[in-house]
Design goal:
This protein is mainly alpha-helical and about 70 residues long. The chain has one domain. The chain is built from three helices and no strands. The radius of gyration is 15 Å and the shape is elongated. The termini are far apart.
Length: about 70
Amino acid sequence: MLMISAFQITIFLALLLILVVFALVLAAKQKSNMRFLIWGAFILFVPFVGALACIINFYSNKNDIKTI
């Protein structure tokens, strides 16, 4: 039988909160306010998937070569 203690739930929620806050900070570094609002809504409505998608998107776009 699967037994989940209150301590495990607290740790999981704390890690989820840290992940969401980190993703919102990265989304705030975007130049466009509209992109931040879209990412913020996505992160808040689908916390785990939205936060991971935002972090992956931020770091994958960070390494792009910018041309003039």
